[in-house]
Write a structure and sequence with these properties.
The protein is α+β, with helices and mostly antiparallel strands. It folds into three domains: 86 residues, Rossmann fold (3-Layer(aba) Sandwich), CATH 3.40.50.20; 70 residues, ATP-grasp fold, A domain (Dna Ligase, domain 1, 2-Layer Sandwich), CATH 3.30.1490.20; 227 residues, D-amino Acid Aminotransferase, Chain A, domain 1 (2-Layer Sandwich), CATH 3.30.470.20. Helices cover 29% and strands 26% of the residues. The chain has a five-stranded parallel sheet with strand order 3-2-1-4-5. Bound molecules: adenosine monophosphate (AMP) and glycine. Adenosine monophosphate (AMP) binds next to β17.
C-alpha cells in the first residue's frame, strides 16, 4: 500500500524508518519531511496543514492511508476534511477527528472529559475574561505552587507553574485580558500542582479495541538535572523502571480503559493514538494531559522497541480490527538524546552545517529540524537531530546514545548528557 505521513520532526523520522521496513508498504511519502526522511521515502513539499493540497496529492498518487504525525492538522480537522469529501472519504486517516482531537486541543474539554469519566487528574477550574474576578478570588483560596494552563494549543508554552499568589494573579490577568497566548488563552484552566515523576503512556485505538504501546519517560527541561526552560523534549527512555506491572495495571484500569470506554460512551469516534501524560504520585497515576498524537522524542524510542509490523497495526486501526493484530515489544532498552540548536528554546541559531553523522556507531540518527543545502545537511529547527539506540540494558543504551550524540558537530550544538541517568 501507499502511505502518506504528515509532519517533519524526529517523531516522523522514526515513523518513516519503521514504516519503510514493512513489506506491506510499497511507497511512503512524507509531507513535508526533512533532510533525513528522504532515506525512507519520498519527501513531498506540502505543509501538513494544507488540507486541499494533501487531499489532491493523495488522489493523484493512489494513497491508501494517511498517518498524521503532529497535533495541528488533527485539531484543525484533517480527518473530518477527508470524511467530508466523496473522493477522499475511503482513504483512512490515522488520527482522531476534530472532536476527539479536543482531548489535546482544549484543556478545558479534556478536564471535563476526565471528571465525567472518573479518570484521576488534578482538581481544576476554568475561567474566561468574563469570570476573571472569580478566577483571581479562586487563586487566593488555592495552595502553592499552582498551575495555569492556556486552554488551546500554544506550541508547548501554555503551561505556567506559579510559586506566589501575586505571580499567579498577574499571569491569569495577562492570559485572559492581554491574550498572552493569543486565542489559546481566552480560557484558562487553573489546576492543582501535582508532585511526582512523569511518564508518557501511548495507546493505539481503532475506536473499539486498543493496544498499549511501550511507555517512555521524556526529559522536558533544557538543562541537566531538569533545570531551566521547558522544551519540546530533550531525550527519552523506554521502558521506564518505575512503570512496573503493578503501576501499569493501575494505569490500565483507572485511565486507559475509562478513556477508551468514555470516548465510546460519548460517541466520540477515535482512530489513532492517545498519548497520556501521567504523574506518578507515590505510586498512584494522575493524568496531567492527553495528546491526540504520539510524543516527540518518545516515538523515537518507542518505535525501536516495537518488533511487529507497524503498518499491520496501523491497518488494524483503520479497519477496526486492532484486536486481531500482534504487538510484540522488545525487552531491550531504547534511549534517545536530542541535539538542539544553540539558543534553543529561545531564539536559536540556524543554517549551520552538520558534520559527523557518519561517525555514529550504534544509534539511529533521526532528523528533526534539518534541510538540504546543496550537498550539505543544515540546521533549520530548534530540535535538530534525535540520536536513538536500542541496547540490552538501560546503562548501555544511555551511554551509547550519549556517546553517539557527541560524535556529531555543528556550530552551537547542545545536548543533555544526563538523559535517563536519574533512572539508574
Ligand atoms: P503540558 O504542556 O500540559 O505538557 O505541561 C507541561 C509540563 O508542565 C508538564 O510536562 C508537567 O511537567 C508540568 N505540569 C503540567 N500540569 C501539571 C500539574 N498539575 N502539576 C505539576 N506539573 C504539571
Ligand atoms: N514529548 C512531549 C510531547 O510530544 O508533547
Amino acid at each position: 500500500m501507499n502511505i502518506l505521513l504528515l509532519g517533519s520532526g524526529g517523531r516522523e523520522s522514526a515513523f518513516a524508518w519503521k514504516i519503510a521496513q514493512s513489506p506491506k508498504c510499497s511507497q511512503l511519502f512524507i509531507a513535508p519531511g526533512n533532510a533525513g526522511t528522504s532515506q525512507y521515502g519520498k519527501n513531498v513539499n506540502i505543509k501538513a496543514t494544507d488540507f486541499k493540497a494533501i487531499g489532491q496529492f493523495a488522489l493523484d498518487n493512489a494513497v491508501d492511508m494517511v498517518l498524521v504525525g503532529p497535533e495541528e492538522p488533527l485539531v484543525k480537522g484533517i480527518h473530518d476534511f477527508f470524511l467530508a469529501d466523496e473522493k477522499l472519504k475511503s482513504i483512512p486517516v490515522i488520527g482522531p477527528q476534530q472532536e476527539g482531537a479536543q482531548l489535546e486541543g482544549s484543556k478545558d474539554f479534556s478536564k471535563e472529559f476526565m471528571f465525567r469519566n472518573n479518570i484521576p487528574t488534578a482538581a481544576s477550574k476554568t475561567f474566561t475574561c468574563d469570570t476573571l474576578e472569580d478566577g483571581l478570588a479562586y487563586l487566593a483560596t488555592q495552595g502553592l505552587p499552582i498551575v495555569l494552563k492556556a486552554d488551546g494549543l500554544a506550541a508547548g508554552k501554555g503551561v505556567l507553574i506559579c510559586t506566589t499568589l501575586q505571580e499567579a494573579q498577574q499571569e491569569l490577568k495577562e492570559m485572559l485580558t492581554e491574550a498572552k497566548f493569543g486565542d489559546a488563552s481566552s480560557k484558562v484552566v487553573i489546576e492543582q500542582f501535582l508532585q511526582g515523576i512523569e511518564l508518557s503512556v501511548f495507546v493505539m485505538s481503532d475506536g473499539v479495541n486498543y493496544k498499549v504501546l511501550p511507555e517512555a519517560k521524556d526529559y522536558k527541561r533544557i538543562g541537566e538535572s531538569d533545570t531551566g526552560l521547558n522544551t519540546g523534549g530533550m531525550g527519552s527512555v523506554s521502558p521506564v523502571p518505575f512503570a512496573d506491572a503493578a503501576f501499569m495495571q493501575k494505569v490500565t484500569d483507572r485511565v486507559i480503559i475509562p478513556t477508551v470506554e468514555g470516548l465510546k460512551k460519548e460517541n466520540i469516534p477515535y482512530k489513532g493514538f492517545i498519548f497520556i501524560g501521567l504523574m506518578n504520585c507515590e505510586g498512584e497515576p494522575f493524568v496531567i494531559e492527553y495528546n491526540c498524537r504520539m510524543g516527540d522524542p518518545e516515538t523515537e524510542s518507542v518505535m525501536l522497541r516495537i518488533e511487529s509490523d507497524f503498518v499491520d497495526l496501523l491497518t488494524g486501526v483503520a479497519e477496526g480490527n486492532l484486536n486481531e493484530k500482534e504487538l510484540v515489544i522488545s525487552a531491550k532498552t531504547a534511549a534517545t538524546v536530542v541535539i538542539v540548536a544553540g539558543g534553543y528554546p529561545g531564539e536559536y541559531l540556524k543554517n549551520k552545517v552538520i558534520t559527523g553523522t557518519e561517525n555514529v556507531r550504534d544509534s539511529h540518527v533521526f532528523h528533526a529540524g534539518t534541510s538540504m543545502q546543496g550537498n550539505d545537511v543544515i540546521t533549520t529547527g530548534g530540535r535538530v537531530l534525535a540520536i536513538s539506540t536500542l541496547q540490552d540494558n538501560i546503562f548501555d543504551a544511555l551511554q551509547q546514545a550519549t556517546a553517539d550524540a557527541s560524535r556529531i558537530y555543528y556550530d552551537g550544538m547542545y545536548f543533555r548528557k544526563d538523559i535517563g541517568f536519574d533512572l539508574l
